[in-house]
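Example 3.2
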Amino acid sequence: MMPEPPRAVIGGIGCRTDFHVAAALDPLGRMLGTESFPATAAGYCSTRRWLASFGPIAAVGVESTGSCGAALARSLSEQGCAVIEADQPHRHLRARRGKNDAIDAEAAARKVLSGEAAAAATDTTGVVEAIRQLSVARNSAVKARSAALCQLGGLLVTAPADLRAQLDCRRTLGGKAAVCARLRPHPGLLADPAQAAKTALASLGRRIAQLGAEADELEDELDRLVAAAAPTTLSRLGCGTHHTATLLVAAGQNIDRLSSEASFAHLCGVAPVPASSGRTSRHRLNFAGNRDANRALHMIVIVRLRYCERTRSYLNRRVSEGKTKKEAIRCLKRFVAREIYRTLRADLATLKTRT
């Protein structure tokens, strides 16, 4: 008898912060084994060797490729494995079988085997990942600065009248914060509410100035990176640095993992979802998808409604046909998603040839 050819292996991995659990299936869906590995560089190599011990690796479904599974996905890709992005198990599975890491890993593998999970994991080894990281830091600084401004405004309402009078020379909260940063309270009289108010306002003023400087510095770096990565998309009306960066991060540097512009629209949550049953034929909104990308598309549409006559004409025509303004804006978001997908593909293809 001829020897049996080696069977392909479908892997599934449930990722956690300190460790990950791998499961291996054969092509018929039979469980070959499960094993736990540390979330380290050596553990990633051990995971690949363990899966390969059952036979050639066809594909590996990895959970949380955008968070605690990102390093593992990079390592497996570098070792030549096809890494598939697998969502967390459906709540119906957890209701039937319960919840543990081995069950999650098996569910990821079965999603790959059935074809339910087919999209490649986002590439996190290029400039798009750098843009994501800088965007996270910049957005954090902006939010913290906004929170500090709100706190400063609240303190000003209850501050002594003579202290408020010193700040009347500035009209905006940002201007008042700059003045507060220069206040010099007496450190030995903090039991006095007036001196305590000066201390608190001075602290918030310095914090606001520091966070503003951090946000400006990060924004300059983002301007440079986004202009180099996606110049064509950046030139479109309404596509500023931050909206372009958000859409770049949503698509990923390996945008070819999205089979069509419809896939990109679905990823951004602007593709209607069928909701028909029996004699009822209708679609509903897609409440899933990348909500940051959805918001970026929405803001691009709002800008174009303000400055683009063609966009306003389309909105008025659809409203005259019986659609509401919100429904017409949703149609425009779908159109913008189609346009942005094409420009992003062109930009990333050009970037690939340059590098």
